[in-house]
Write a structure and sequence with these properties.
165 residues, mainly alpha, three-stranded antiparallel beta sheet
């Protein structure tokens, strides 16, 4: 299937359930997407095959509510890659491993793991610092109060023991 045939099938499927303007937005998006991927050096047939069945794409768009003409529904499309239409997260399973995508670009798994570990260390450090700060605040308030109560208790105990004699 070539680009023209793909777009015609997509158009036909979309126009069954939405107005022309909304359908045109979606068709235009996919046309531009295919053109951009071809400019990057990918084969047109490979791009179209990666996108999948145009009727399934249309059904996914319609099911997601992409048929409203008052708003563009392409806010989340930038994070989607060919072959993963309908996934809204930035992870894809490839060859038994998960790959992370950021702004539509694949991140090296090693770099992704390092960034993940650094993020985890940062979160742990922040939690530790917050708990440390709370403990210092509590110690600055509670410790003096406890010391004063202990001293008052000792003094009152001494006074009571002298009064009994």
């Amino acid at each position: 299937m070539d680009k023209q045939e793909f777009l015609e099938k997509l158009s036909e499927a979309l126009r069954e359930s939405m107005d022309d303007r909304s359908a045109y937005e979606h068709i235009s998006y996919y046309s531009n997407y295919i053109d951009e991927e071809v400019k990057k050096g990918r084969d047109e047939q490979e791009v179209i095959t990666g996108l999948g069945n145009p009727r399934l794409i249309a059904k996914s768009i319609i099911d997601r509510g992409g048929y409203t003409s008052s708003e563009s529904s392409y806010a989340t499309y930038d994070t989607m890659k060919a072959g993963s239409f309908g996934k809204t997260d930035n992870f894809q399973e490839e060859e038994g491993a998960y790959r992370f995508y950021f702004n539509g670009k694949s991140i090296n798994p090693v770099v992704g793991k390092v960034v993940g570990i650094l993020a985890l260390i940062t979160v742990i450090a922040l939690v530790f610092l917050v708990l440390w700060g709370i403990s210092w605040l509590v110690l600055k308030v509670v410790l003096p109060v406890v010391l004063v109560l202990v001293i008052v208790g000792v003094v009152v105990g001494l006074i009571n023991s002298f009064k009994r004699r």
